[in-house]
TrEMBL record:
<protein>
    <recommendedName>
        <fullName>THIF-type NAD/FAD binding fold domain-containing protein</fullName>
    </recommendedName>
</protein>
<dbReference type="GO" id="GO:0019781">
    <property type="term" value="F:NEDD8 activating enzyme activity"/>
</dbReference>
<dbReference type="InterPro" id="IPR000594">
    <property type="entry name" value="ThiF_NAD_FAD-bd"/>
</dbReference>
<dbReference type="GO" id="GO:0045116">
    <property type="term" value="P:protein neddylation"/>
</dbReference>
<dbReference type="GO" id="GO:0005737">
    <property type="term" value="C:cytoplasm"/>
</dbReference>
<dbReference type="InterPro" id="IPR045886">
    <property type="entry name" value="ThiF/MoeB/HesA"/>
</dbReference>
<dbReference type="Pfam" id="PF00899">
    <property type="entry name" value="ThiF"/>
</dbReference>
<dbReference type="InterPro" id="IPR035985">
    <property type="entry name" value="Ubiquitin-activating_enz"/>
</dbReference>
<feature type="domain" description="THIF-type NAD/FAD binding fold">
    <location>
        <begin position="2"/>
        <end position="51"/>
    </location>
</feature>
Amino acid sequence: LWGDHGQSALETAHICLINATGLGTEILKSLVLPGIGAFTIVDGKKITQEDIGA
């Protein structure tokens, strides 16, 4: 889909996800799989037992 230059750009990219909803995390996963170099997640909510499937 993209050449060496495009892959290099992906590998050096840094994505910031603000408010990690279910949709946002799915989008982030789709961006990470092709090789995004780094990502930061910013979310003020506390994780509950329900969130981790316990």
